[in-house]
Amino acid sequence: MSGRRRARAQFGAETDDDGRFVRQDSRFRDVVTADGSSGFPAEPGRYHLYVSLACPWAHRTIIVRRLKGLEDVISMSVVDPVRDERGWAFREGRGHGADPVNGFDFLSEAYLACDPSFSGRVTVPVLWDRQTGRIVNNESAEILRMLNAEFDAWGDAGLDLYPEDLREEIDAVNDGVYRDVNNGVYRAGFATTQEAYGEAFDVLFAALEGLDRRLSRRRYLLGERITEADWRLFTTLIRFDAVYVGHFKCNLRRISDHAALWPYLRDLYQVPGVAETVDFDHIKRHYYVTHDSINPTGIVPKGPALDLLQPHGRA
Questions:
Q1: Positions marked active-site
Q2: Residue ranges of the domains in the chain?
Q3: Helix, strand, coil % in the chain, rounded to nearest 5
Q4: Which of 5, 95, 190, 257 has its CA 20 to 30 A from that of 45?
Q5: What's the confidence (pLDDT) of residue 26?
């Protein structure tokens, strides 16, 4: 460190010796399958999704649940966006409330009920199985795939966000977007050294410029069809100008400054049902109040003004 000042880590267990944020692996990785071969058969009313409207990882599952028409098949409850040292909590408030399935006060109780030795960070989303009384999965990318395909007997089977002919390309796009953008904003925001922050910052904006060029030549990431790759990127882009620019110091350019990314973001936001999944109050209060090492005053900014309903011109 050569005597240079180092910030206090928000998540010390996920910060390496050089001040870089290193995200933990998801703990629960079982899957629901349509044929039940996994031991967790797809059934209406059996599974429950614990989410935060503030969290981009949870948000992607909320969107797919909505688009696939699974609201009456998989129930869902929302945690308080303000998280303290006890973690995600079930409290009554606008857009969030008590746990209707287990009566938990904190989501950590679900983790400890399944693994009494769990000591990592409790994350959302969580897919819970009512029948066995345990967590099936807490990895958003895998829950996304289950929602897309395994409940088609009760949802919109005509919508496939991971079509077989595009899977190889989707996986490649997802890898880059996750590494450099989805997780990239966190690597910048949770860096505890200038060097770690600068490294993450440069990688993030190089990736955004590459995505902007890609989207200048096609409507969506894979062409003319919306895929899971678009929704995985969307949940970071929708938070970028409101949170990541200021709170995470990702301030080279806003998404609204990009020629292709800005209309692309509006295009996705205007897909029927999607706008209703976006809650900027939850988003801003979560980041600005919860991350006290970054924003110790807890003041939540009033802006920015984003006209997401402005015609996007990408049809």
A1: 55, 186
A2: 47-149, 164-272
A3: 40, 10, 50
A4: 95
A5: 81
Longest dimension (CA), the chain: 61
pTM of the predicted protein model = 0.94
Tens-digit pLDDT profile for residues 186-228: 999 999 999 999 999 999 999 999 999 999 999 999 999 999 9
At CB < 8 A and 24+ separation, what contacts does 15-21 make? 15/190, 15/192, 18/193, 18/195, 18/196, 19/191, 19/192, 19/193, 19/195, 19/196, 19/197, 20/187, 20/191, 20/196, 20/199, 20/200, 21/186, 21/187, 21/189, 21/190, 21/191, 21/196, 21/200
- CA 16 – CA 313 distance, rounded (Å): 44
Q: Is the pLDDT of residue 91 over 50?
A: yes
Is the separation of the CB atoms in 200 and 191 below 8 Å?
Answer: yes
Look up residue 130 and give its two tokens: 């009512």
- How many residues are there in the chain? 315
pLDDT higher than threshold 60 for residue 146: yes
The SS3 call for residue 304 is coil
Give yes or no for a contact between 282 and 234, defined as CB atoms under 8 angstroms apart.
Answer: no
Tokens for 160, please give them.
Answer: 């496939």
pLDDT for 16 equals 54
- Strands across the sheet with 47-51, in order? 75-78, 47-51, 126-129, 134-137
184 or 4: which carries more pLDDT confidence?
A: 184
Q: Which two tokens stand for residue 116?
A: 């009494």
Grouping H, G, I as helix, E, B as strand and the rest as coil, residue 41 is: strand
The distance in angstroms from the start CA to the end CA of the chain is 51
Please identify, in words, the CATH class of the domain defined by 47-149.
alpha beta
Q: CATH fold of 164-272, please?
A: Glutathione S-transferase Yfyf (Class Pi); Chain A, domain 2 (1.20.1050)
DSSP label at residue 87: B
Q: How far apart are CA 74 and CA 57, in angstroms?
A: 18
pLDDT digits (tens, 9 = 90+) for 11-66: 556 565 666 767 678 889 999 999 999 999 999 999 999 999 999 999 999 999 99
